[in-house]
Amino acid sequence: MTLDNYFEFLAPNDIRIKGHRIGIETILHEYLFKAKTAEEIAQTYKTLTLEQIYATILYYLQNQESVNQYIENWLNWSHEQ
What we know:
This protein is mainly α. The chain has one domain (3-80): Arc Repressor Mutant, subunit A, CATH 1.10.10. The chain is built from four helices and two strands, in the order ββαααα. It has a two-stranded antiparallel sheet. Helix 1 packs across helix 3 (50-62) and helix 2 (38-44) crosses helix 3 (50-62). It is globular and about 30 Å long.
């Protein structure tokens, strides 16, 4: 199984965890900006498995440049709303 199997790529600005409405930006915001561990994130998002959370973090680590741009776009959109 590849990391891409954990995600639904709905649009260039909408990547969600497969089977959930939760976008990767939600998990990565907790991880990057709030410095939460995967285990702490799992306590907040009880419908996600620890495996899904670690897969999201690993996806970020393997694709930092593109995911940083994705998150920046998401933050800009959020501030505009």
